[in-house]
Amino acid sequence: MDAIELLQHDHRMVEQLFRDYGSAASANQRKGVVDILVRELSKHAAVEEELFYPLANRIVPAGAAKVEQHLREHLEVKRVLAELDGMSPEDDRMDDLVQRLQGDVAQHVQEEEGELMPKVRDHLDEQALRELGEEIETAKRRAPTRPHPSAPDRPPALTLAAPVAAINDRLRDRIQRRPRT
């Protein structure tokens, strides 16, 4: 897959996770879905911030403003994910936070797929998009699996901080027996 197809695939997977949350039969099942949402959205945000947004910033005319907007949206999503991450299955706030997260993510996806991604596609050939897709796939395997709202969201600081966060996250995931995706 090329980079845009890969990122859009992530979007579809997250949309399915929101549907899974809505159809979960118990608080523990909903928490399990939340754990996967936290993991997948954290990895997705990290690779967009490390690879996709810097490229868009460079090649899309007036891309810097769009990238800044998307980074602000990522920060809000990370804050909600951080709150959900430590929540017990019985916490009364979970449904409201997931609903808020779903709305934030839906708006973000609509803007990204409707505006930024088409502009990136217009400025790159298929070979470059495939190569970026390969880089994104590799980066997802080493990306943080938890939200880090206080961490840098741009290279080069992100490039230095993300591997340390990812190692810590994966250790915590194993200790807590979190699902792997």
In summary, what is this structure?
This protein has 181 residues and is mostly helical. It has helices spanning 3-23, 27-59, 63-85, 94-123, 126-141, 157-175. It has one domain (3-175): Four Helix Bundle (Hemerythrin (Met), subunit A) (Up-down Bundle), CATH 1.20.120.
Q: What top-tier CATH class fits best?
A: Mainly Alpha
- Low-confidence segments, given as residue ranges, are none
Specify the structural class. mainly alpha
Instruction: Quote the beta fraction.
Output: under 5%
* Ends apart, CA distance between termini: 18 Å
The helix/strand order is HHHHHH
Q: Return the CATH topology.
A: Four Helix Bundle (Hemerythrin (Met), subunit A)
Gyration radius, in Å: 16 Å
Rounded mean pLDDT score: 90
Rough shape? Answer: globular
- Helix amount, in percent? over 70%
Number of H- or I-type helical stretches: 6
Annotate the secondary structure layout:
Elements: H1 3-23, H2 27-59, H3 63-85, H4 94-123, H5 126-141, H6 157-175
Helix pairs in contact: 1-2, 1-4, 1-5, 2-3, 2-4, 2-5, 3-4
Structure description:
The protein is mainly α and 181 residues long. The protein is 78% helix and 0% strand.
Give short descriptive properties of this protein.
mainly alpha; single chain; 181 residues; Four Helix Bundle (Hemerythrin (Met), subunit A); 6 helices
